[in-house]
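User: My collaborator and I are trying to settle a disagreement about how two of our proteins should look. Neither of us wants to argue from intuition anymore, so we agreed to look at predicted structures for both before our next call. Could you fold the first one, then the second, and keep them clearly separated?

Assistant: That sounds like a sensible way to settle it. I'll keep them separate. The first protein:
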Amino acid sequence: MPIRIANLSKYYRKGLKAKKRAIEDLNLEIKKGEVFGFLGPNGAGKSTVIKILLDFIRPDSGSITIKELPVNEPKVRKYIGYLPENPFFYDHLTAEETLKFGGKTAGMEKGVLEERIDQLLTCLNLFHVKKQPIRTYSKGMVQRLGLALALIHEPEICILDEPMSGLDPLGRRLVADLILDMRKMGKTVFFSSHILSDIESLCDRIGILNEGKLLFCGPLEDFVEESTGLEAAFIKIIETDRKVKNE
């Protein structure tokens, strides 16, 4: 199993003694070759789960494994490609230089790396600006470069935090096509997004999180009623959960 989350809990301190729940008893398995959409309102805990997945922070209890290895195992790094919601780069470097750095860090050979750089920049419509400083790029171009960097070493598992953020319709289509290509190649894609139309068009399964608790996990068609779309079904399950908690 590419990603397995078992009994995961994380709390943040609120004041001297009180604690605020970020994640509580989360169990989730992401299958090989699937595109999994991670949904939830702001503050649901999605970013916390992603940070634990990447070993940026540690849980209070429970575990996460990637390809049966604990996430703090150094070997895990070679299997993962990661795109943060707001990627940041040294803006005096070019896209080509940034990707060369990423590829060399991943141990790629020079010839393979150069070919991979041109392939990704062409797919993401950045080839014509590959020698321009990143400070001249728009937000959408920086976002697409971030995806190229996440994919430079051809990882088996891609973790994407709001990959469509700041993209125009053309950019969203380019990124969507890359995600679908990854699925065809048997790669696993785990991504969070607030753009529900992208979830509908790309995902095999979805997980819905609210206030640290998993409300649903399964195929999209099992969640969306025929008479409603994903947005209506999503709003309904979140509002119902909040109503139950307030009673």
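The second protein, kept apart from the first:
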Amino acid sequence: MPYSVAVVVGSLRKDSFNRKVANTFIKVAPPTLTPEIVEIAELTFFNQDIEGNPPASWVAFKNKIKAADGVLFVTPEYNRSMPGVLKNAIDVASRPYGQSAWEGKPAGIISGSIGAVGGFGANHHLRQSLTYLNMPAMQQPEAYLGSLGECVDANGELIDRTRQFLVKFAEAFAVWVAQHAKK
């Protein structure tokens, strides 16, 4: 039985480069994984005052994360860190305290930017949060996709070099999930 993977994209832009990366990952993932994007756009800001009576968007998101065997984060870098919408999603699914949906889920991170550094800051800030959330994060291969604007062809598809990197990353991630998922 394949492992389900929640793919959380840290960009809300419909045609973002990181969403293209996530969609390509879904296409090239080995048959041992069933990845699916779990949307974060509808999540209201985390507010502890409403934690006891959470909005439906929080409940639905948290349930999708709980149901997944693993999580892949695909994120841009904003101001040398992860986007606020991604941090909000992490906070929403981690609360109330002691009831985190993230607990023990094997994780992978692909960060990307139009700059040369490939989202290094976002990747490592996200790793700090995953450590606290007790999510074993895959170490190798690292996935910092730089110059993403140059990695897309005229049809909006990722070029072959980038696609082939994602194939190798997906194969390694499948092994990681199989080793760490709680089935």
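Some points you might bring to the call about the second protein. The longest strand covers residues 3-9. The longest helix spans residues 160-180.
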